[in-house]
Amino acid sequence: MTIDNRRIDMHSHFYGGGLVDTLRARKKRPYLRTRGDGVTVMVAMNGEFPFTEHYHDYRVGLAEMKAAGLTHRMLTFPGALGVDLMPAHEIATAISAYNDYLAQLTHETDGVLIGLAGVPLDDMDLACAEVRRIRRDLGLPGIILPSNYFNSLEEADELRPLLAAANEYGCHIMLHPGLKVGQEPPARPADNVQYRLSAVDLQSSASQAALTVILSDMLDEYPNITFQIVNLGGTLPFIFERIESIARHRNPNEPFPTERLRRLWYDCASLGPRALEAAVKVFGADRIMLGSDYPIFKDDPYGHAVVPADLSDAEKMQVSWKTADDLFAHLETLRQRALG
Questions:
Q1: Which of 2, 20, 169, 278 shows a CA-CA span of 20 to 30 A to 127?
Q2: Among residues of the chain, what percentage have pLDDT more than 90?
Q3: Is the pTM of this model over 0.90?
């Protein structure tokens, strides 16, 4: 493998690392059950889905990666599932064990698999201690957080202690659609549920999270945190000009800080070449990374989104691996500096 052939997938999910046993023992969402036809299904917050080996067997994922030409993949704690929202006395030990397993996988695969950890959000002290351990002791790049905490400035303030702890050693934070502790799933749409929830609503939630970060003091207050917004920032590449127009006509003395969008990172999970072209024009290729959303989606993000995109060879290389590689190098520099 030459350096130009690297393909780093920065958005996938992993339900292994001991979580299967934990979820089998539960009777409330989220939990695993076996149907009468023998199929194991995950009963999640918004319905259920077949729970195949793709979700929990890293070896199956490695084979899928090889077939697609992906060379590295960041596995994330299944944040959208709501496991990290459970009472801390029920789940904190399992989350820590899962994080240990991610670190072990990184070692065993010589860095081919990279882990993004979870934290027990029901107990802020435990969450803060765990994010310090994740960065200081395990060397994992960071954590995944539910984006509903970033729907407003007030809600984001609830995580200030965690953000301060994450800032100590440098930390990558993926903001992924998901509920807050104690929050019930919203009412399901009357029709076309998958499209309304998994496309329209999800893309809007990603945009809301990005807006909260760039319109707050977070980027300046926590300079050692790198924020990843999933799915190319939601709708932002397509509506930022309208946002600028709103500011220009209604708040002429306070222009919208579009340039701050370039202080975030984005992945192209589940999106295609046209969306990628628009995002590169707005954010720059040096802020965008591959993303598959495996195992929910199984497209090769390089072949599906990057190859057909109207981008330069340098931009395609940047998206395919260099943005992610530069990001990991930056995070490791911050960690080593903090370790002294």
A1: 20
A2: 96
A3: yes
